[in-house]
Amino acid sequence: MKNILITGASGFIGSFLVEEALDRNYQTFAGVRSSSSRNYLSNPDLKLFEMDFSNQALLEEQLKKQADLFGRFDYIIHSAGLTKSRFPQEYFDVNQGNTERFINALVNTQMVPDKFIFISSLASYGPGKSGIPIHEGKEQSPITAYGKSKLAAEQFLQQVSGFPYVIVHPTTVYGPREKDLLVLIQSMNRHLELYIGSKNQDLSFIHVADVCKAVYLTIDQPVVNQQLILSDTLNYPAPEFNDIVKKILNKKTLPLVVPVPVARAAAHVSEWIGQLQGRTPIFNRERLSEFEAENWAVDATALKQLGFVPDFPLKEGLTHTIEWYKKNGWL
Fold this sequence. Notes:
With 331 residues, the chain is of the alpha/beta class. It has a domain at 3-178 and 204-233 and 297-313: Rossmann fold (3-Layer(aba) Sandwich). It is 43% helix and 17% strand. A seven-stranded parallel β-sheet has the order 3-2-1-4-5-6-11, sandwiched between helices. The chain has a two-stranded parallel ribbon with strand order 7-10. A two-stranded parallel sheet has the order 8-13. Helix 2 crosses helix 3 and helix 7 packs across helix 11 (314-327). The radius of gyration is 20 Å and the shape is globular.
C-alpha cells in the first residue's frame, strides 16, 4: 500500500480527499491540528497525524517520528490553508508561511514525496479579462489577500530544486458540507435572488467529488511541476446558475441587483459585526471584490487533455448537494 498524507483533512475539501484515498486503498494519514474537528475522520482505517505547521523544528520531529513508524509518504496532498480572516496578514502567515515551513521540513528530513499536490485556488490567478477565460498561461494577478497569499506559496514551491509538485486551482467548489454557496441557495429558497452590480458575470464551478477525481488523476498521470485549473469544464452566466437552483428548489424569486456602493457599505457593516462577535463573516470586502469581478470563466483544455470528465455536471451536482442540505437539515 502506498502512503498518502492529506493535510487540512478536517476541512471541506480535505475530508472528501481523505474518503477518496481510503476508497482507493491508500494507507491514509489525515494531517490535523490538535484542535481540529474529527467529525468526518472516524474511519477506523484512517491514521490521524497531528501536525504543527507554525513550528518548523517541531514539525520536523513529527515527520521523523512518522517515518520511523510507517515510512515516508509516497504522496502528499496539501489542502491545509486559511480561507477566511479578518486580518489580511493572517492569510500570508498561514497559506504562505505554513507551506514554506512544511516544504522545508520535508526537505530537511529527506521525506520529499514522489508527488506533492498543492491545493491552491483560482483566486491566485484573479479574474479574467472581458470575454477571455482564465487559463494556466494567464499572468497571475490576484485581487484579494487570500489569492495573493496562495500565489506567494506557489512561487516558493516552484523555486525549490528537485521538488516534484503539481499545483491545482479549483474554481468555486460546492457540494455536501460546503457553507458559503449554501448562503446563496438559502436566499433563493427564501425567494430572493441577489446580484451585485449587474447580472453580467461569467462563472465556473466544480463539485467537491470532481475535485477529488481531478486531484487523484494528477497522481495517476505523469504530471509533474505543472499547474492545472479545475472546473466541471463548462462556464455559466450567473442567471443560468440561479435558474438551475430555482428549478431544483421549485421556487420563484425576486431578482435584485444591489448597487456596488450599497454592497460595499453592507460589507463594512458585516465586518464590523463580525469584529464585535469575534468571527469572520462570509460576506466581507475580500469577497465583495470577487463578486464584483465579471469574468471567472475558465479554459479547461488542459484538464480535459488528462482525460477528465466530470461525474457531476452543474445541474446534477447542485441537485445532489441540495438533497444533502435538506436531508441534513441545512436547508
